[in-house]
Amino acid sequence: MWISKSVPVSAACLLAVLVAPAGVGAEPPGAVSPTESRLLNRSVPDVPLQLADGRTVSMSSLWQDKPLLVTFFYRNCHGICSPFLGWVRDAVRDDGGSGRDYRILALSFDEEDTAADMRSQADALGLAGDPDWLFAVAEPEALARVTGALDFWYRLDPATGQYDHGALLAAVHEGRVARALLGGSGFVERFRIMARELRGEFIPFYTVPNQTAWRCFSFDPVSGRLYMDWGLLILGVPTLVAMAVTFGLFRRGPRRG
Amino acid sequence: MHTTPATTYPGTIGAADAAAPSRDLAVPETQSTIYAWMLTTAALFVILALLGVYMRLVQGGALAGLESWFYPMMTLHGIGMAGLWFVASMACACEALRKHVLASSAVAVFALAGTVVGVVLLLVSVFMGRFAAGWYFLYPLPLQGEWPAWSAVTFLLALTVLGVTWLVWSLDILRAVAVKYSLSHALGWHYLRGETEPAVPPAVIIVTVSMIVNVVALVAAVVVLVLFYLELLTGRPSDALLMKNLTFLFGHTLVNLAMYLAIAVVYDALPDYAGRPWKANKIVAISWNSVLLIVLLAYFHHLYMDFVQPATVQYIGQIASYAASLPAAVVTIFGALLLVYHAPMRWTLASVLFFLGLMGWAIGGIGAVIDSTIVANVRLHNTLWVPAHFHTYMLAGFGIIVGHFYHCGRLQAQGRAERTGYHTVLVTLLVASACGFLAMFYVGGAYSVPRRYSVYPIELAHGATYALWAAVFASVFLLTTVLCLIEVVGSWRKGATGGAEAWVGKSAVAGSLRPSTPNAAIGTSAVSRVDQ
Ligand code: HEM
């Protein structure tokens, strides 16, 4: 929204006299991305997919009995795809829930990719033969429906032959998005939280992908515990100030005369 | 209106016993700004209430084409009314306190000027920038809306000006109390030990409690604003849970204080009409000291739907909401009933409005207690039940304020007859139209009509019907209020010399502008000033 960019600029102009304008005009470093929360509860279309082993299955058959983690990549990527798939693989291993709590689908968005490319990608990641890791391609129209539903953007750069694209992992439960994670800092920690939720655990905590100042609570996804954070101290500041002011004003006692 | 002759009843303290020691005429008094506050309050109340009627008409579908202004106007109406009620209550409480403590005249004028500047900034933000984040500007909405960035910044600046002004004002009142009383006396702790001396007026205890809590609320507002500014400057977002907690620590507490300050005024002025004193005692001290703690925890009921808030805090919120209503409300209302029962009561426009104000507080309070019960809140949350209960006690609070303005006017207008018949008609119309207007909110809430909908969808068509009826009742209410305000402003006419001079710009000396005892002006013989 345009206001989120123009507010800091206007505010900085108005407040320049009061505060040293350290960040004036700069793009916020950890700007809130609304994408993750926007995807929640989105309906995902049921499209046909061709798996690495050549079988054709419907997407709904993959989320029928357990949630499906969907991510996108393309075989020829020189950028984020392989590292991101590596993160997902490691996070899944670390969590130990694959097969029991969910299965994973890596869907190629490059129309040039074939089932053979999918096999080689699985090999490269050491996941060939893992029944809960599925690599697939789809017809262009089906692909467009899935990527459209999940707001996954990609654009071919003709100069390099590479795609400009994001990194997304969406947990689909009974055809709807239950959680979405954008790649980036804190991914592994947030993956753990998502995995706990997929096991039916209620997590009263949602870290957004930015550097929130002074949180009231933090959640440890390993132990599953919620613990108090510095923000709670700020909540106590008004009462402490009022007490200090009151005792300060009344310290001298009533004046005679 | 019926006037009971002033007599001394068995078991009560009559005129002679209750007469307060007269003030030393040489002791200076804080300059009164009450007249200026009265004019400001009257003008703003009428404008803001008109916006309320506009909103009900839009919700009723009667103003096609004007819907786009609904949310800016809702924001202005909400923050305007809540703020106006607070400052009007502060002004009245200060006026009541003038005979007990000496606050700074400069700060009193500063409070008026700062409030006017803040209001102008609010008007610019809402009318020119169409800022529309609602009265408590819940984070992060002010930074995310469709309005221009400058209007959000202007709104925050308006709140900064108002917050700082009111903080300075509150601190000065506390300072003034501290000059005359020790903290334990100002809070009535000696009553808890069974001592009765020194006799501290209940108004002093209530105002001291309120000002301490007020500092908490206003510092919370300052912290919220600082966090908003930090985000604007650095782009680093704040924790939404922290911001919501701080916002309601400020907003919820502030409107509660507005009521408490109005109550202090009733404690101070109602005895003038009852012909008996209303003294502080152990129960009064216990009740208002418990408010000091409880009112700061009651706001948790605004976060029942926030699952991130730990469950324990939610239960504390429910218990505190119940507890907050007990000591102050029950003790005050019971005390007022005892004061009036078999008293040589003099029912005038002022005393009737005081009494109705207390009743409205009780009724709105019951609505609030229902809503703060978690199992009921699941159904009532964000329905019209919410505006229903807060409009009940906010209108009641304004009733007390208007009553106090009239009371002050009568102090100036010595010997002038009151138009009791006309006042009876006005009060009857006020009560009837307010009941109709409020009932439409309550019924809407009970039938799950959501609050803050500018236009109701077809599934909520019944909401539009209630809104139209409410608009009719509100228009009658507004018209009657205007007539009432004319009476109130008129009540200062006879004492124009005193009244007009007293309002601002002159350093007044006790006794020079006011009759030696208020009842001398009102026409009864009993007084109840219990000053030391
Ligand atoms: C004739 C008198 C009044 C009328 C017709 C009126 C009408 C309204 C209406 C229609 C709403 C919006 C309800 C909704 O959420 O759908 C509203 C909200 C509100 N009113 Fe009033 N009102 C009146 C008096 C007052 C008074 C005396 C106060 C306070 C002292 C007050 C404070 C508020 C507040 C704080 C809100 C909430 C605004 C928000 O949700 O941001 N109103 N009023």
Structure description:
The complex is a heterodimer of chains A (257) and B (532). By secondary structure, chain A is α+β, with helices and mostly antiparallel strands. In chain A, 35% of the residues lie in helices and 21% in strands. In chain A, the strands form 3 sheets. Chain A has a 7-stranded mixed sheet. In chain A, strands 6-7 form a two-stranded antiparallel sheet. In chain A, helix 4 packs across helix 7 (187-198). Chain A is elongated and about 95 Å long. Residues 1-33 of chain A have low confidence and may be disordered. With 532 residues, chain B is mostly helical. Chain B has a single domain (6-531), classed as Cytochrome c oxidase-like, subunit I domain (Cytochrome C Oxidase, Chain A), CATH 1.20.210. The model of chain B is unreliable at 1-26 and 496-532 (pLDDT under 50). Classes of the chains: A alpha+beta (257), B mainly alpha (532). Chains A and B meet through helix 1 and helix 8 of A and helix 6, helix 7, helix 9 and helix 10 of B. Protoporphyrin IX containing FE (HEM) is lined by residues 49, 52-53, 55-56, 74-75, 77-78, 81-82, 85, 134-135, 387, 391, 394-395, 398, 451-452, 474, 477-478 of chain B.
